[in-house]
Write a structure and sequence with these properties.
149 residues, mainly alpha, Arc Repressor Mutant, subunit A, three-stranded antiparallel sheet, 6 helices
Length: 149
Amino acid sequence: MLYINTFISLWYNLIIDRKSNLQAGQELEADVRVRIKDKCIKNALNLIVLALLQDRPWGLSGYDFIGLIHNFFDIMVSPGTLYPILFSLQKQGLVHVEFKGKRRVYYPALKGKKNVEPLIDCFIDANNQLNEFLRNIPKRSEEPSQKIA
């Protein structure tokens, strides 16, 4: 449920955010598109971390996560963004950590392995609902009497 609420609040912030430099009737500018993409990816980092660990049972360090996220999504995630997420997942029992020298290596915990697929399905369902909602918003050029089904 946390992931759905987080996802919905992300989209609400993207649509309602008064700070963005969207101008009526114009296409999104490149920097705004990048900002939206960054927000979407960073908001899903909990799930991304769990999914990355699912395919890599040998474990990953924080540096590994940052590199993989950059390669997959072409965004840079700072340690200040990533490590609180890793700590939170560890506290929830979804990942466990071992110290190897100076490095912390994160592994999928048994609880995390069992919960990743349902969390991904939940996230996909929420994303599909949101996409459907956004596709059905009447365009400004359409009649205002049209309603969302």
